[in-house]
Design a protein that fits this description.
By secondary structure, the protein is of the alpha/beta class. Helix content is about 40%, strand content about 15%. The strands form two sheets. An eight-stranded mixed β-sheet has the order 1-10-9-2-5-8-7-6, sandwiched between helices. Strands 3-4 form a two-stranded antiparallel sheet. Strand 9, helix 7 and strand 10 form a beta-alpha-beta unit. Helix 2 runs parallel beside helix 9.
Length: about 280
C-alpha cells in the first residue's frame, strides 16, 4: 500500500508540473472554426492538407472515451479508487477497452465528401493523428483498427504516398511513427517533427501546408516546422466537436471505470446516467 501512495505522490507532482510548466504559450495565431464549411480553402497540387482525426473528423458522445479531457480532480479520484491503473500495462488494458468499445461518429455528416472534393481539386490530403502505431491493450494493431474505422465512415485520404515506417524517429511502446494508407500515426511524437520526416521523404516539397486540428499544441508544432522550412502555413483550430460535448461528471466516469474493470465492457454515458438517475 505504501508503494501505491508513493507512486500517487509522484504522479500528482508530475501532473502539476505538466499543467504549470508544459502548457507553454504559442506565439502563432490560428483561425478558429466550428465547421469545415467556414474554411476558405485555396489549394493546388503543391498544397498539403492535414487533418487530425479525434475530435476533428470523428468524435464520441461519451466524454470519458476522449481519454485526454478528464479534469485534474478526476485524475486524483481515479488513482484513489483504482490505484492499479498507475501500472502502465493495466492502464493500457482498461483504456483500450474504453477506446475500442465507445461509439464514434463523424463530427459533420459530410466530412468524407469534403475531403473527396479537396482531392478532386488536386490537393494532397493526409490524416495526422497522435495515436500509437503498434498494439495497445486489447487492440492488437492500432493502425488497422483506426484505418478500418475511418473506411467504414467513408473517410479516405490521398493514396499516392507509399506506406513507410519512420525508423529515424524515436521508438515508443515498441513502435515507430508510421504512414499507412494516407494516415500518419505519430505514435505520440510531435506532429510537426513527424510531418517534417514525411516531407523529407517526398521528391516534391509542398509550398503550402493547411492543417485542421482541435489541439493548438499540435498546430503550434506544425507552424514551427513551416517557419523553419519557409513553407506557407494556415492553421485551423477546429472547435466543432466542442459544441456537442457534455459536461464531465466525476460520479458517472468513476462508475464507467468500475464497470470496465469488473466486466471488460463499456457503459455509455446514457447507460451510466440512467443507473445514477442523472437523466
Amino acid at each position: 500500500m505504501k508503494k501505491y501512495w508513493l507512486l500517487l505522490i509522484i504522479l500528482l507532482s508530475s501532473i502539476f508540473c505538466y499543467l504549470y510548466f508544459y502548457k507553454s504559450i504559442c506565439e502563432y495565431k490560428f483561425i478558429k472554426i466550428h465547421s469545415f464549411s467556414e474554411a476558405d480553402l485555396k489549394c493546388d497540387s503543391n498544397t498539403l492538407i492535414t487533418f487530425d482525426i479525434d475530435d476533428t473528423l470523428i468524435t464520441t458522445e461519451d466524454i470519458l472515451a476522449k481519454l485526454e479531457e478528464t479534469p485534474f480532480i478526476f485524475k486524483v479520484l481515479t488513482i484513489i479508487h483504482h490505484p492499479y491503473l498507475i501500472i502502465p500495462k493495466n492502464f493500457a488494458h482498461i483504456s483500450s477497452i474504453i477506446f475500442d468499445q465507445a461509439h464514434r461518429k463523424l463530427t459533420e455528416p459530410d466530412n468524407g465528401i469534403f475531403i473527396n472534393k479537396l482531392k478532386a481539386n488536386g490537393c494532397k490530403v493526409i490524416g495526422l493523428t497522435s495515436i500509437q502505431s503498434g498494439s495497445w491493450g486489447i487492440i492488437e494493431n492500432m493502425i488497422e483498427w483506426r484505418y478500418n474505422m475511418l473506411e467504414s465512415m467513408n473517410i479516405r485520404f490521398s493514396n499516392q504516398f507509399k506506406d513507410v515506417v519512420f525508423y529515424n524517429l524515436q521508438k515508443r511502446v515498441e513502435s515507430h511513427p508510421t504512414l499507412y494508407k494516407g494516415i500518419i500515426f505519430t505514435n505520440l511524437e510531435s506532429k510537426g517533427k513527424t510531418l517534417g520526416a514525411f516531407i523529407d521523404m517526398q521528391k516534391e516539397k509542398p509550398n503550402r501546408i493547411i492543417s485542421f486540428d482541435d489541439e493548438e499544441t499540435a498546430l503550434c508544432s506544425i507552424a514551427q516546422l513551416c517557419q523553419e522550412r519557409k513553407i506557407e502555413f494556415i492553421g485551423y483550430h477546429y472547435l466543432g466537436a466542442d459544441i456537442k460535448a457534455k459536461k464531465f461528471v466525476n460520479k458517472r466516469a468513476l462508475l464507467q471505470l468500475d464497470y470496465v474493470y469488473k466486466y471488460n465492457k463499456w457503459l455509455t454515458d446514457k447507460q451510466a446516467d440512467a443507473i445514477l438517475n442523472l437523466t
